[in-house]
Amino acid sequence: MNKEVGSIDIDMNIFGIKTFPDIIHQYIRYQNAKSRQGSHKTKTRSEVNGKAKKPFSQKGTGNARQGSSKPPNFRGGATVKGPVNRDYSFNLNKKEKKLAIKSALSTKLTEDKIIFLDEFKCDNFKTKNLYSQLKNFIYDSALFIHSEKGVDKNFRLASSNLPKVSIISQKGLNVKDLLSYEKIFIEKQSLEEINKRFSWLEIKI
Question: Where does 53-176 show beta strands of DSSP type E?
Fold first, then answer.
């Protein structure tokens, strides 16, 4: 699978546009915020264990007056203005998302980090056989982008044990993965699908 199979036409309106670092940064913020769980929470006075009854008399004890054992100043009491469950995600419009992905693809192509392959196929599911084929590409980490039809079963099984190697569909293409992996391998058919998805958004350089 590491043999040259011929030339391929690349849409420079997708892989050759001007890079927009601010849009890329905004997209990564969008991804990180969307993946945050937001389940942190502290208990309020209505939720902590304790009694709402006055702990002691108003006068005569020498202590400061108290109306409950649930205030923050008591051990085991509530937390004031503590974190509550929340959703950190925010919206990013469709044009910004696609422009960010195109910027990331263009950056990778400029750095000569994108490799186009005819197909992702293996004769068997042996990891060592796939590794021996891929090592000629000299990569530290790799992302394989396949088409909608899916990926060869042997290739998926063989690659599952390779460190720093991931496989995604072109539908799941995102900036964080494109920049996190050193080299990007794109299947020929998935390239055609990527061209259809992003060709409508023309960027003037």
Answer: 114-117, 142-146, 165-169
